[in-house]
Amino acid sequence: MEIPSWPQPTERESELLRTVLDSPQWGGFHPFVAEFEESFAAYQHCDYGISAFNGTVTLELALAVLGIGAGDEVIVPSVSFVSTATAVSRAGAVPVFVDIEPYSFNIDPDRAAEAITPRTRAIIAVHFGGTLADVDSLVRLTAKHGIVLIEDAAHAHGSEWNHRRAGSFGICGSFSFQNGKVLCAGEGGMLVTNDRDFADKARAFANQGRKPGESYHKHFTLGTNFRMTGFQAAVLIAQFESLPEQIARRTENATLLKTLLADRQKLMWQKQPEQVTQNSFYLLPARLEDATINRDEFCKALNAGQVPCAPFYPFPLYRNPLYQQENSCRVLPCPNAEAYVKNAFWLPHRVLLAEKAALLEVAQAIRSTLEVSQAAGI
Ligand SMILES: Cc1ncc(COP(=O)(O)O)c(C=O)c1O
What angle do CA 132, 175, 80 make, to 5 degrees? Predict the structure, then answer.
């Protein structure tokens, strides 16, 4: 079975990397960095893009710009990559873990509403796997309470809600270009925003407190160096050229795979709200709602058959040793997250880049693995 590898280099990366190598500027001031910031922010329907060396520091940058710190609380989903929560902790604030919805894999706005206190400053919503969280409800909720919405859009390059792209709903969107992401340079990140003041502050913070047009040696505010290199931008400009075509292919293949397995009623794919007009399909997540199937054995069997598949996160974020420490976080009841960690899994995006023949084999492998697992009662 031919499942494409990832990342996928072309001659274009080599050509653009050579351009940087042959220039006297390899760092964040190479023109490729500003060029990529502008084009990626515009693609996400935002006016400003502030790049950084990864998508963890972009979350930290957002919180620093917003002045969130000691004494503050930030509401986060209980299942995500750890950076969503550690960015809050590193800012000195307290992450408040709330449950996800039963089938969207995304933060439940009603549970977020219940978690709001006078100390709450922000909600960070993750667009899990590329499917946007319910931004209509989240924007309404944050506006009502005078707090901000930060979109952790690390999975959601090109994803849309009613034809508007991820990152354009909150005060900012935070993207990752880490090795496994659908747009990648090994490492990299970007904040996108439509707020001029936020953009100016973020750019200054990530570039040692400098102001555009002023002396390199003049620092107006306390900042640091989060700059992306010219090499990262070169790779990203090249990879970006393939993104729309890859999203189209993954979308077509996700539909085909779900259609082929539509009779498997206990295989519940991530719910796609009708407002989701485009999905990056960074992940194709699903739940196995059959108590006779052991999710870990199911994933192992698929992997043995050459189908890449990952059992979900092993536990909700609040069960990490870090968050077992006293006063490190606040946790609301999360029955859905607790159920997901037992029965959810995901297929990575490279599966959805396969040719049709291979995709038919993937569907067949999932079907027979389900049948064997059920028959064995494992
Ligand atoms: C939801 C989420 N947020 C943040 C990050 C952090 O990005 P990076 O690995 O670029 O630091 C990731 C990376 O996997 C992620 O999945």
Answer: 60
Which among 181, 180, 155 is positioned nearest to 166, based on CA atoms?
155
CA of 376 to the centre of ligand 1 (A): 37
Q: DSSP letters of 119-165?
A: TEEEEEEE-GGGPPP-HHHHHHHHHHHT-EEEEE-TT-TT-EETTEE
Which two tokens mark 54? 């990864």
Q: What is the pLDDT of residues 28-66, one digit of tens each?
A: 999 999 999 999 999 999 999 999 999 999 999 999 999
282/346 Cα distance (integer angstroms): 10
| Long-range Cβ contacts of 61-64 (<8 Å, 24+ apart) | 61/191, 61/202, 61/205, 61/206, 61/226, 62/87, 62/150, 62/171, 62/172, 62/174, 62/191, 62/202, 63/87, 63/88, 63/91, 63/93, 63/122, 63/150, 64/91, 64/205
- Phi and psi at residue 377, to the nearest 5°: 65, 30
Q: Which residues line ligand 1 (CB under 6 A)?
A: 54-56, 80-81, 83-84, 126, 152, 154-155, 176, 178, 189
Closest-lying ligand 1 atom to the alpha carbon of residue 176? 10
Atom number of ligand 1 nearest to Cα 56: 11
Pick from 81, 126, 157 the residue to mutate for probing ligand 1's pocket: most ligand atoms within 8 Å of its CB.
81
293 CA distance to ligand 1 centroid (A)? 30
- Beta pairing, strands 73-77 & 267-269: unpaired
pLDDT tens by residue, 65-91 = 999 999 999 999 999 999 999 999 999
How many Cβ atoms from other residues are within 10 Å of residue 43's Cβ? 18
* Residue 374 pLDDT exceeds 80: no
What gap in Å lies between CA 226 and CA 203, rounded to an integer?
9
Tokens, residue 332:
């609301």
And the tokens for 232?
């990262």
